[in-house]
Amino acid sequence: MIVKELEPQTHTDPLRRAGYDAEQQMAHYLKRAFGDDPLKSVFHNLRIRRLDEVAQLDHLILHRFGIVIVESKSVSGQVAVNEQGEWTRWWNRQGRGMPSPVLQARRQMDLLVALLQDHSSELLDRTLFGLKQRQFAGMRRDVLVAISDQGRISRKSDVPELVKADQVPERVLEIVKGAQERGLGAFSFSDAELIRLQAFLRTRHQPLETQASPVQATPVQASPVPHHTQPPAAAPRQAPVPPRRPAPGVRATQEQQAPSRPSSEVVCRHCGSERLSVQFGKYGYYLKCAACAGNTPTRPQCAECGQPAKVSKRGSEFTASCPAGHSWLYWVNPAG
């Protein structure tokens, strides 16, 4: 199923327009193959941040056994890879070197896995009667580089990640089948974990045009490709955007407070529901889900400095504060 659609974009620059056309072509193939498949979750143009690093993922497929990242490349001529793994793009009989898209996608994967691992206790179940926390170390992770249909590939070394765009769905199915054939003991996500991962990735998307701070305005891009380095002129926002947080020491105004869910990153770890309320228990504050009765730890993380924050209560409002002095409205319990 398509969890995040490709956002419409308009480009005047020919290179960026060609890059977006390649992404549209790949999105078409993925929708036709997995649009009705509940066990394949597809995200297009997903932009994630971890600390001061940003990765722009053209396409991401979440499946039962792991994640596939697909990097789309607009190639109307020929792309060649020599024996040393060096890439060259050819056009009008002129060749120009280019960075390896495979290495680029692997760096994006590394950042994504590190982000998921930061939140493993929220996203993954516990095993051995709740004594051991599952980790993402055993998760299958694959990258593919999709060349647009009109392009040609010349290989002098084996690059299994390099495929034509129309071959990507079949390659994804081969990856899933290979992981499934490993049988008992192989890493796999539970249904509840898949739901939590879908919600987490959806809320972690940060459209470039919403970044306002000096650091965020000039992010460290994981991709040097031109069509990834600038935001679209007027791309509509499709992903939920967290509300503006008040400055340190300043209480949120009435306009900044949502009736029951100020933070778009807070969901039930078991079912992904937003029907939560903050409760106090033996180990401190936690979130109680009205949909499945599951419990979720309150583990807010400061968006300004990345440090973990503590939760404090005042009436029905709960404020998160980090050691650096930043504070923001974390939650408002529903009335009654």
TrEMBL record:
Q: Which residue ranges are recorded for the region named Disordered?
A: 211-265
> Which stretches are tagged as biased composition: Polar residues?
211-221, 254-263
Q: What PROSITE patterns would the database entry show?
A: NERD
Location of the NERD domain? 18-135
InterPro entries in UniProt: NERD
Q: Hey, what's the signal peptide range on this chain?
A: none
Chain intervals with Low complexity compositional bias: 224-238
Q: Know the name of this protein?
A: NERD domain-containing protein
Which organism is the protein's source?
Answer: Deinococcus koreensis
**The organism's lineage?**
Bacteria, Thermotogati, Deinococcota, Deinococci, Deinococcales
